[in-house]
């Protein structure tokens, strides 16, 4: 669908993409790579990432995965896979070519125990392995080698319903070992547990807004009609990750396609920044009918450092990457049977300069390598994040050589010049980048510069005008007095 739309909007030249020292032609990719203009039109772009291989269980030295649901990259670079239907955790080396170990059971205080449909996995900064053991209704905490540490289960609180059934789906842990859990049918938000396993409450609830018409109709409807109406319940989260500062990134399904991700501060408040179009919902152009119609549906999120995060869309298999300011950096990926596409994408992670996606139906991990184009954008955004705007200009200039109409690059250069104090040059690039917010800032600063530079001339002109005004008023006054005297004299003679 998007391919047809893009083809109708943009005529793209054959692009050569360099990854790992080899050239890849854009027309050889199994998906379109694109972004959106200020006017929300589709613009084809060079690929930021291209497929570099697929990992299967047998290919990594163990038996094949069976409907895996999650994966994570540990601080030491090892990759942990929640092999759900096989009731095990598979640990792969950093390039995913070999199986380091398989954890399918553990000794729990003298008793042999195991998993039943583990759907979530996470390794904390302190190298503790957290497993969402869904059907056993618990979070199992082990060492990376599989030795038992503790169990987190059966949350107790007055805020929980009496019949609440704790079925954990996804789990992550912050630097203080607080545990964040997405649980089945927990619409009130993410469940938070302290490091000792004590449940402390819900976190980051997404409230559903009810229109005035819906409120009015609800009052008029009968009890039977109200029972058939859609329940106005908060949105359920789908994926979760924690950044270096302890802020929680959580993806969700947004039926309006406006905001499919939150950045939650320690109070559970959403503090995520949005770009010029105020949209963090994935695709802006979508069809209204068919299997792949409707807004993007984000199923997972990964924080990649320096304010960059990527979201996985299960609707069309796209990967959307944003920066800290909510700017959409690039889009790639798709559904299909070719290498580099997915059938049922469920989880996303980054490892080094690679992005990896877990496909549940194909029971495999799809790897994507960073191209020169992607590397330049990532580096430029990272330099801005670190406050090194001057170095970012060179990166953005190289992006423009590969994609001359890239609004993001023009905006990036404009922001860099703005930070450096070159407001006139900033205005030039911010106009090309269609960034009204920062253009307005640059224009005001440039106007003030002109006023300051010409203050002597301006003041001289003002003083002269004031003096001329005073002289004019005096002359006018004298003229009026003279006329009155002349009139008086004429009256006396009469």
Which labels suit this protein?
alpha+beta; 3 domains; 4-stranded antiparallel β-sheet; 29 strands
What does this structure look like?
27% of the residues lie in helices and 30% in strands. It starts with a helix and ends with a helix. Strand 13 (129-133) and strand 14 form a beta hairpin. The strands form nine sheets. The protein has a four-stranded antiparallel β-sheet. It has three domains: 46-386, 6 Propeller (Neuraminidase); 395-453, no CATH class; 454-494. By secondary structure, it is α+β, with helices and mostly antiparallel strands. Mean pLDDT is 88; it is low at 1-14 and 226-233. It is built from nine helices and 29 strands.
Q: What is the gist of this entry?
A:
This protein has 494 residues and is of the alpha+beta class. Helix content is 27%, strand content 30%.
């Amino acid at each position: 669908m998007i391919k047809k739309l893009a083809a109708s909007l943009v005529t793209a030249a054959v692009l050569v993409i360099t990854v790992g020292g080899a050239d890849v032609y854009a027309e050889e990719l199994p998906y379109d790579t694109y972004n959106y203009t200020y006017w929300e039109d589709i613009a084809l772009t060079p690929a930021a990432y291209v497929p570099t291989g697929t990992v299967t269980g047998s290919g990594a030295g163990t038996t094949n995965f069976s409907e895996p649901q999650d994966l994570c990259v540990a601080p030491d670079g090892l990759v942990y896979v929640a092999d759900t239907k096989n009731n095990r955790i598979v640990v792969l080396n950093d390039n995913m070519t070999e199986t380091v170990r398989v954890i399918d059971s553990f000794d729990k205080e003298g008793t042999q125990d195991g998993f039943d449909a583990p759907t979530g996995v996470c390794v904390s900064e302190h190298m503790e392995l957290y497993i969402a053991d869904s059907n056993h209704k618990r979070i199992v905490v082990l060492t990376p080698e599989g030795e038992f540490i503790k169990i987190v289960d059966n949350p107790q609180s007055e805020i929980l319903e009496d019949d609440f059934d704790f079925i954990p789906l996804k789990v992550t842990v912050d630097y203080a070992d607080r545990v964040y859990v997405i649980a089945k049918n927990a619409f009130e938000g993410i469940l938070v547990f302290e490091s000792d396993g004590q449940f402390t409450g819900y976190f980051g609830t997404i409230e559903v807004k009810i229109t005035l018409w819906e409120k009015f109709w609800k009052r008029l409807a009968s009890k039977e009609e109200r029972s058939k109406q859609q329940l106005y319940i908060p949105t359920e989260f789908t994926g979760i990750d924690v950044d270096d500062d302890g802020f929680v990134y959580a993806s969700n399904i947004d039926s309006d396609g406006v905001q499919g991700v939150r950045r939650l501060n320690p109070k559970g408040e959403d503090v995520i920044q949005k770009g010029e179009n105020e949209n963090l919902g994935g695709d802006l152009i979508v069809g209204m009918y068919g299997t792949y119609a409707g807004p993007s549906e984000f199923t997972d999120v990964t924080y990649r450092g320096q304010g960059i995060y990527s979201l996985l869309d299960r609707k069309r298999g796209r990967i959307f990457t944003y920066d800290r300011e909510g700017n959409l950096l690039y889009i790639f990926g798709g559904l299909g049977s070719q290498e580099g596409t997915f059938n049922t994408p469920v989880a996303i992670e980054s490892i080094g300069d690679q992005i990896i996606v877990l496909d549940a139906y194909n029971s495999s991990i799809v790897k994507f390598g960073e191209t020169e184009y992607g590397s330049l954008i990532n580096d430029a955004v990272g330099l801005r994040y670190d406050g090194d705007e001057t170095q970012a200009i060179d990166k953005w200039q190289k992006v423009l050589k590969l994609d001359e109409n890239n609004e993001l690059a023009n905006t990036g250069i404009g922001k860099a010049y703005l930070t450096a104090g070159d407001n006139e040059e900033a205005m030039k690039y911010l106009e090309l980048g269609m960034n009204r917010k920062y253009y307005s800032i640059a224009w005001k600063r440039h106007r003030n510069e002109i006023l300051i530079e010409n203050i002597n001339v301006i003041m001289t002109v003002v003083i002269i005008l004031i003096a001329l005004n005073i002289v004019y008023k005096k002359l006018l006054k004298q003229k009026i007095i003279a006329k009155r005297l002349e009139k008086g004299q004429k009256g006396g003679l009469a």
